[in-house]
Amino acid sequence: MSAPIRDFRGRVTAALNISAPTSRLPDLDRAGRATAAAATAISIQLGYPEPPN
Questions:
Q1: pTM of the shown model
Q2: DSSP-assigned letter for residue 6
Q3: E strands, 1-53, where?
């Protein structure tokens, strides 16, 4: 899984990545959502605007 990390201009400046054997990461959907949420949280700390609810 990977998700982009964006700066205050919205440009992708990094990526957050997790990897593991499927035996240790059985719920890929949940892991993907968690990865995206963490990347969004980091992006917000870099000044990227919070997504609307």
A1: 0.87
A2: E
A3: 2-6, 12-17
With 90 as the cut, is the pLDDT of residue 44 above it? yes
Would the pLDDT of 51 be above 90?
A: no
Q: What length does the chain have?
A: 53
Alpha-carbon gap, residue 31 to 20, rounded angstroms? 11
Q: Residues with Cβ < 8 Å from 2, sequence gap 6 or more?
A: 15, 16, 17, 18, 35
For the four alpha carbons of 6, 42, 27 and 29, in that order, the dihedral sign comes to negative
How far is residue 19 CA from its own chain's centroid?
A: 13
- How many C-beta neighbours within 10 Å does residue 35 have? 17
